[in-house]
Amino acid sequence: MTASLPTGAGGATIRFHDLLLEQAPSYLDRFGAAVPRRQREVLDKLLGCRTPARGGELFACPGCGSFHYAYHSCNDRHCPLCGQTDADAWLADHTALLLPTPYFLVTFTVPEAVRTWLRAHSEPGLDVLFATSARALQDLAAEPRRLGASLGMLGVLHTWSRTLIYHPHVHYLVPAGGLSPDQRQWVPSRPRFLVHVHPLADHFRTLFRRELERQAPGAPESLPARVWKQRWVVHCQAAGSGENALRYLSRYVFKTATGNRLLERLPDGRVRWPYRDSTTGGPAHVDLDPHELIRRFLQHILPVGFHRVRRFGWLHPAARGKRNRVRALLDLAPQLTEAERAAWQPPTQDWEAPEPEPPPAPTPLCPRCRRPMVRVGSWRAGQARLLPPGRAPP
Question: What is the pTM of this model?
Answer without folding.
Answer: 0.86
